[in-house]
Specification:
Domain Terpene synthase metal-binding: 448-644
CATH class of the largest domain: Mainly Alpha
Distance between the termini: 34 Å
Keywords: Magnesium, Metal-binding
GO molecular function, one term: terpene synthase activity
Number of strands: 4
CATH topology of the largest domain: Farnesyl Diphosphate Synthase
Domain Terpene synthase N-terminal: 212-389
CATH superfamily of the largest domain: Farnesyl Diphosphate Synthase
Radius of gyration: 30 Å
Shape: globular
Strand content: under 5%
Number of helices: 27
Protein name: Beta-myrcene synthase
Strand order of the largest sheet: 1-2
Amino acid sequence: MDALSVTNGASAPQMVKTLAKCYFCVIEKDIVSKYSLSPKQVAILSCIRAQHAQDFLFTIPIDGLGQKMNHRQFRSVLCYRLTVPMFSEGGLCPSCNVHHMDIWGDHAVHCSSEVGVKFRHKLVRDILVDICSKVGIIVRKEAPMGSFRRMGMSCDLQTCYYLIGFKTKNYNAKRCRGHICSRIYSSQSTSMAISADENVVRRTANYEPTLWSYDHIQSLSSKYTLLQGEEYAARANILKNSVKMLLGEVENSVSILELVNDLQRLGIYYHFEDEIRNALEMIYYTYYKTPDKWGKMDLNLTALGFRLLRQHGYQVPQEIFQNFLDNTQNLKPHLLEETAGMLNLYEASYHAFEDETILDNARAFTTKYLKENLDKMDDHISSLVTHALEFPLHWRVPRVEAKWFIEVYEEKNGMNPILIELAKLDFNMVQAIHLEDLKQASRWWRNTNWDKKLSFARDRLVENFLWTIGFNYLPQFSHGRRTLTKVNALITTIDDIYDVFGTLDEIEQFTDATNRWDINLIEELPDYMKICFLGFYNTINEITYNTLTKKGFVILPYLKKAWGDLFKSFVVEANWYQSGHIPTLEEYLENGCISISGPVILMHVHSMTSISSTQEMMQCMELSKDIVRYSSLIFRLTDDLGTSSV
């Protein structure tokens, strides 16, 4: 049917009816032949095509259309009235299995015993909100003339593609790909909304509100803070002195390496960096420096030392494991009895460089062996192996690993009570510092007022702060965590403007204003962008000022360049989405290495290191450009894998 047959004077209900005919008469016949549907998509389609859902769209106008309603009131009406397609008429609620469903779906709105029901409700609601918005049925505005033409493709294809992201079989790619290029790492489902003070249709990602309120964060306290916990600090100093003595007394090389390994995994190594450095240097020159000493070590000593030494920058070749291989380059059979050695070899293999085939083969062999023999191990070693097989130690976040290892180490036979007491005490004392960092960042976030003025964006301050702990949890990095939390919050919010809420013209204006770094250009921006730009401008200038007072040089030109590149990459992706351009893999990765925000974050990290001059900054940037690129590439691809649909 021709969707353009709607007359110019058609009312909103008539437009809905026409669209319903298009949707149920045209799409229902062709959808299976035109698209590949997963079982989940078939189930969703079944709900949407239910008879009472069709009747609802065909005959019943939505209260409030054409009246002056704000977007929240409008969504509330739809939230209640568009629950009909979720359930079979007269059936039991699939959640509580008690109440019968009436045709209007009232119970579906109020039954909260199952998260899945709410999710399904939101999915159906947002689909139908999109259907209405595509024909111009939005707040304070009914469908204008030619509303279908502006979509750029036939209404059936556009609505269907938005519905559940089908993989097209036969339609021309140019008609479909406009929706394929939504930014991969923006996995939240989107719907359409209308600005309350202007007739601009905007997307919204329907982000859930934050779980942590400002008052809750500020109410948190710890008895381990520096002001309240003097007795804890005194006890920690006593324990640290005991550990230093222990490091000096241990003579057995394996025992020294195991102690260093325990200190690292317990998260307290930073108190003993000099002692650890001296111990590793002694072991390196005793056993690892020259090949004639390699044959004197067993597998456990070799593998554990190899990992720790490479981790600390020593050049230890993979050939050190050659003595443990037979003529076929497999591990000698008698080594299979050394479970600890096999586990340490497995962990060591993840420190391999490119083309180190001995380590690559060792990883494959030890992985297979550890999986097959897991049931034969005692409880302690079994927990270590299971943990390692999930993720190797080299891939784990140290702070999270420390909490897990403290609990495991405490159950170990022969554990050192001094180490476990210090580890627990230090964990709590450092956590108290993290808490103060979070409270300070929370006060900054509240002062921006972005959580209220930019309510379309993600309010994810706590998550952004948690990321900085993963980056560096050490107590002396407190200023860095506070700064990077602000940087991450800026990135998250501005990303939502470029990715979801802002129009193409608006984001180009915003990009121009930031590139020129001219506060006077704020008057040319829409109101919501004025708040965002000024908050961003003030925060970056504050970071610049702090760097100047602490380090003595001006970081602003480098920050402006990094942020400008980030926003340009956001604009590129927005243009891809709007134009329907499908980038090549090379195009996508080239832009994605910047849009993932790695260069911006690492530029701020540079300013927090020992760099104290503009010349040092330039040298550091030149030396680290490959590290920045490759780490950003890993960040980009890992993030895409984590948020892409299956």
